[in-house]
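Supplementary Text 2. Reproducibility record for the structural model of the 484-residue chain.

All settings were left at their defaults, and a single model was retained for analysis rather than an ensemble. We include the record here because the model underlies the residue-level annotations in Supplementary Table 4.
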Amino acid sequence: MDIREFAIGKGVNQFEFGMLSTVFVVGITGVAILPFYVYLFGAGIFWEYLGIICCLSLVWFFESYKLMRYSRRHAEVLTLPSYFKYRFKDSNEILRLISSTEVITLSVVIAALLLKEIGIIMSMVFGWDSMLTSFAAAFILAFYLGWYGMESLIKTAIPKGVLMLIIIASICLYIFLTVGPYQLVRNMMSTDITGSVSEYINILYHDGEPLMLEDYVSLLSMGFLVSGMPFMLTSFFVSRRARTINKGRQVMIIYIILFFVAAACLGGLSRGYLYPEKITKSLSDYVRIFYEKLNSTDGMGPVMAVEFMILMMLGLICSIEGALHATITVLYNDIINSGRLIRIRKGKERLYLICLAYIVSMLSFMVGQLINSISINTIIVFIGTLGCSVSPVVFMSLFWKRMNKYGCMAGLVAGLISVPFLKYATLFNYSGQQASLCDILGVNSVLPSIMVSFLVIIVGSIITTKPDEAVVKEYDDVKHRILN
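Retained model, structure tokens:
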């Protein structure tokens, strides 16, 4: 197996392609975050997931074909850093180095946070040692990613996607039939929620408070995060035909809507099902009390409890797989191979890839152990940093031919810095207290960071030299359909 086979696999059918990037997105956002946030805040979280669906659709409709065409024209385009190099004809490799460093660093941290969350959940539910559990998960993932690469993700995409949807639907049906609609509503009315049940299930309310303009902006803008995930974007390099993308887009839209609706129902039903437990703001604690409640129920309860834990593990693992695969591929292809750090012998690539898979997995495990406290917000901040760095740069590179490599570098750096800066830099005095710009505006850091990235890309490209004629010519050529 060479790096190309590891990165894009041997082949993919239309339905597998539709599920390939989708299971990565629904893993953390659909399995873990959505039910938990609906349980915690109410139906107003609908707007956040509407933003995700809209952004995913935009990516599939307007970015997928062009990314596929670049990979068709340049056989070496296997990763986003490689795409940036060939898009802007960056012969000195600086652009590839900057983008590789960002993707590797942030993907490792995301994988580390999710691996640690697996350990915490299994420790709270079964009493397992959290460190050993995280280590075992990292070791197993490294084994099959190292041996099979993208092929393992392609061939398991449909089974994992279908299984997760079936489990969610079966647990929802079980809760509904076991408790009944009348008792579920009564339980919700007795739960320590903010506001009334009618406000909880009202999409115009969030956490018991009516949504304001800035709230809609914040929730909808969260969709930009998934549109910048390297694993999802590089999955378009796997496709060889426009027909595959057309069918994959249809599969993605239908599946993701069904999945998010089912996951939202699970979160809402769990609010009434877990009564009289008080509302918890910890994901791992939410998983624990849900599992214990199912497991303590007669009949099919223990079966549903096992299914629920399988669902949680599958969701987290799907996202870890995407982060690890992107990290290994970029590290091997764009740092080691292109940088000629190691002389790679022909016929030995599989061995190098297996070793690298274990190194990256173990590194992610160790980073996770160094992080003392973890929450969903911590995970989202790092996903946001990666999304706000990558998404604007890829979008502008595909739709603005005046953009050059300097604008690309500036956009990558600006996106990396702006999320933590706008969220945590308390530079302003607001109502007698130090506050960040996002605190003053009443929005999260996603949209301001995206706008900063776009602005920096435009300014950086305009004040520097125009792109070479060859770059502009190729940009114009790629807009046309490839017929064979």
